[in-house]
Amino acid sequence: MTAMATRIQERASGPSFLQTFLSRHGGMMPTFAAVGILLLLFVGAEIFLRGDFITPRNISALLLDNAYLLVLAVGMTFVILTGGIDLSVGSVMAFSGILGAKLLADGVPAVVAVPAMLLGGAAIGLMIGILVQYFDVQPFIASLAGLFLGRGLAYVVSLSSIKVEESSLLWLQSTRIRLGDWYITPTGLIALGTVAIAAFVLHLTRFGRTVYAIGGSEQSARLMGLKVARAKVGVYVISGLCGGLAGLVLTAYSGAGYPRNGIGTELDAIAAVVIGGTILTGGRGYVIGSMIGVFVYGTIKTIISFMGAEQSWMQIIVGALLLLFIVVQRAIVARSEGRR
Amino acid sequence: MRSIWRHRLFWPVVALLTLIAVNSIARPNFIKFRVRDGELFGAIITILRDSAPLMLVALGMTIVIATRGIDLSVGAIMAVSGAVALTIIDNSGDAGNLGVVLIAVVAALLVSLVLGVWNGFLVSVLGIQPIIATLVLMLAGRGVALLITGGFITTVNSEPFSFIATGYLFVLPFAFFISVAAITVIGLVERRTALGVLTEAVGINPEASRLAGVRSRGIIWGAYIVSGTLAGLAGILYASNIRAADANAAGVFIELYAILAVVLGGTSLNGGKFSIAGTVIGVLIIQTLDSTILFLGVPSAQSPVFFAIVVVVVVVVQSPRIRNAIGRMSRSRQPKAAAVEPPVEDKQKAEVTR
């Protein structure tokens, strides 16, 4: 909202200021566009569904239903900012979820099972990071190995769904912290907390600035003496950790671990990150943008289920939106390259 | 001798032969053939037959990867192609009619070709990164396929249509002939004309090849069209095999297996030099491994663990770090051996990562 307001103000104060703003903050434009799309979707749905859409209940559910995707998108943002990609997150989430459910079903206390879930995810991330950094494997292929490994290990843990009875894990989902008609669950808090920590790390720590520097130009980052190797392995570990955390959130959400969870979720996460304005060549983007991207994704899903349309439209609309955003990004990148 | 083991197909061939040897020892039935009604049966025949869809997709993927691209949408194109073909046959009311089946197949191939044109347009004209450009169709394609079938799994009982995947011509499966035909056509066009060299030129340095007068746009565009059309044919094979168009299950993960096959065959994902023979061997390795895993009694759902291990081993062995180490070892034994190659490769890598 504030973004729109500032843009209108600039237009009033003349084109030269607008141009300066655009050239300074060209990288933010896709994120503003995502905010614009989100508002448009809200307003459109509100009008189309005759004031039935923007209710505290719906908005609260939006966060609740997409908490796991939000966590994944945060991890994915780190990787994409370095110019990499992580295809493994969906499988890692499934593996971590089923691992946790199995451990809990075997009577392991939650204080052991939950760290095991997170470490399991981080370990797969570490493997991908080492392959990428030390063996010069392309991120696509290295994370592909992670995808296969995660999915296979999920089935090794269990071939069928395992119900979770552990009360502390279910508490994450069943508790509703209410404020009037609004509510938030601990899983929602976890997701928002992840976003906040990620934003802090990316913008206010040495590691975060290194991540942006690698995305801008790995060569320059190395020549500047930044710890490129550590940061590059680090982003995959973070993404794996987020995958593990998403497994926890999803297990709490669905009340069970299931090895077929999250097939294709990596694509949803990538789509959300791209819609949120992070550029796939790396170096530009914001974790807040990824959050907006997830909400755009979730809102489309809600609208489609409200309209009772077929789910197939969901895939088509997300595909079309993705295309729109890439073309916008392409134009921005082309312009900034032209300036250089 | 040295030139044999330094040949880039050496390790893939060794891997395939090892797999076949292990299988032959573990289950003697593996290498046995038996003839029934003039049709050949056996584990190897099954592998050759079942590998056809992956073979087609991987061939197209090889060309795309050679141009320094990637095509993630092949699975979705398979789903669309199968949906188009079966919907036409289903609606015709005369499923057994050869003419209807031919029209359905041609229509499905045309639709796939158009999808390939779309991918190629995004990559070569709009200049969008291949991963993302094809991701659009990968996401939207299954939705389109579901719309075509109306959200159902369309099933048909059509003799001519199921012949495509399960029929026999002379003594061998018809699907095998399809994949041999595809390999031959692609091999001839790419290796007996200048097209292959031009494709490699575009993959190695698009800008330089453009300045040298290569019409890189047309070559890249063509690669995606070929990949889309071959994926469409693979979709028809898949649908014919299960006699149904399952928009959700057709070609799931096939893009990953196809990329794996290409990489196993020694074609670098950085584009440039490609090997059709390598891809063929890569596909056979994957299919044989799949058959081995099934034979071991591992639930097929768990087989990705094995593929993960294979991917890791292959990429680590191919990595410059390990190659340099091997290069150093052979240099210390044979001081005169030319070991200039590894650093060159390093430079190429650095260029790409930048």
Offer a quick outline of the entry:
The complex is a heterodimer of chains A (340) and B (354). In chain A, 76% of the residues lie in helices and 3% in strands.
Short key terms for the protein model shown above:
heterodimer, A: 340 residues, mainly alpha, ABC transporter involved in vitamin B12 uptake, BtuC, two-stranded antiparallel sheet, 15 helices, 76% helix, globular, B: 354 residues, two-stranded antiparallel ribbon, 6 strands, disordered C terminus
The residue-averaged pLDDT of chain B reads 82
Label the structural class of chain B. Answer: mainly alpha
Unreliable residue runs of chain A? none
Overall, the morphology of chain B is globular
User: Strand content of the residues of chain A, in percent?
Assistant: under 5%
| Text of the CATH class of chain A | Mainly Alpha
Major sheet of chain B: order of its strands? 1-2
Q: Care to count the β-strands of chain A? A: 4
Count of helical stretches of chain B: 17
Strand order of the largest sheet of chain A: 1-4
Query: What share of the residues of chain B does DSSP label as strand, in percent?
Result: under 5%
User: What portion of residues of chain B is helical?
Assistant: over 70%
Using only CA atoms, what is the Rg of chain B? Answer: 21 Å
Structural class of chain A: mainly alpha
Measured distance between first and last alpha carbons of chain B: 37 Å
Oligomeric description of these chains: heterodimer
Order of helices and strands of chain B: HHEEHHHHHEHEEHHHHEHHHHH
What is the residue-averaged pLDDT of chain A?
A: 84
